[in-house]
């Protein structure tokens, strides 16, 4: 019973820690001048949606891709969202190591499962991982388009970098389409 209580407390602690992602802002956008950037959780949510869509288009397992996307930035509760320029000067622990620490007191099945998901995202080359990584970049591109519409002009670098890193044809096609429309284009389907 004591071990069960410890496992529950460790798992609950992990869940509480994940709540920090709802408050932590994506730091790279500050460099572009965005005063109130999206949170890591907001980014991860849409990355999961984008990943699912990409998986459907690429014939991959959409649920697995969504799961990979959901956990891809969970380590940022411990190391923060280090902008790419910051990575020149700061060396963070590998995401797999951070994850192992995060779930070290969790229920053994949770610990093993979360570590397996992060390890796969970080080290595998499956179509699901490819879709998840493309989803991360495509979400960044879409966010940059939205910020540009809001008047932030210093986002082109994020758009260019994201496009250059996309691997799947579906992600490339979606990026091209997103760049050719406004963020409220979807409303035209329903509004006269």
Number of domains: 1
In which range does the helix fraction lie? 55-70%
Outline = globular
CATH superfamily: Hypothetical protein af1432
- Strand elements, count: 0
What profile does the largest beta sheet have?
A: none
N/C terminus separation: 62 Å
Topology order in helix (H) and strand (E) letters: HHHHHHHHHH
Report the portion of residues in β strands: under 5%
- CATH fold node name: Hypothetical protein af1432
Summed over residues and divided by their number, the pLDDT gives a mean of: 95
CATH class: Mainly Alpha
CATH architecture level-2 label = Orthogonal Bundle
Low-pLDDT runs: none
Cα-atom radius of gyration: 18 Å
- In quaternary terms, these chains amount to single chain
Structural class: mainly alpha
In brief, what are we looking at here?
The chain has 192 residues and is an all-alpha fold. The chain has helices at 2-18, 28-31, 40-58, 62-71, 76-79, 95-102, 108-123, 127-149, 156-165, 169-179. The protein has one domain (2-189): Orthogonal Bundle (Hypothetical protein af1432).
Please tell me about this protein's structure.
The protein has 10 helices and no strands. It is mostly helical and 192 residues long. It has one domain: Hypothetical protein af1432, CATH 1.10.3210.10. Helix 3 packs antiparallel against helix 4 (62-71), helix 6 (95-102) packs antiparallel against helix 7 and helix 8 packs parallel to helix 10. The model has no long low-confidence stretch (mean pLDDT 95).
């Amino acid at each position: 019973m004591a071990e069960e209580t410890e496992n529950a407390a460790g798992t609950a602690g992990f869940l509480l820690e994940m709540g920090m992602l709802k408050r932590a802002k994506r730091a790279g956008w500050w460099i572009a001048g965005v005063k109130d950037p999206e949170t890591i959780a907001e980014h991860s949510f849409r990355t999961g949606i984008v990943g699912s869509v990409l998986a459907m288009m690429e014939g991959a397992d959409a649920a697995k891709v969504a799961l990979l996307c959901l956990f891809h930035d969970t380590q940022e509760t411990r190391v923060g969202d280090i902008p790419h320029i910051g990575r020149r000067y700061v060396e963070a622990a590998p995401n797999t190591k951070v994850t192992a620490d995060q779930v070290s007191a969790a229920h053994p099945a949770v610990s093993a499962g979360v570590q397996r998901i992060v390890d796969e995202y970080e080290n595998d080359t499956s179509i699901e991982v490819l879709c998840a990584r493309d989803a991360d970049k495509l979400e960044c591109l879409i966010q940059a388009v939205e910020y540009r519409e809001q008047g932030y002009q210093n986002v082109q670098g994020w758009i260019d970098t994201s496009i250059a890193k996309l691997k799947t044809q579906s992600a490339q096609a979606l990026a091209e389409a997103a760049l050719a429309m406004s963020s409220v284009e979807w409303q035209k389907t329903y509004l006269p």
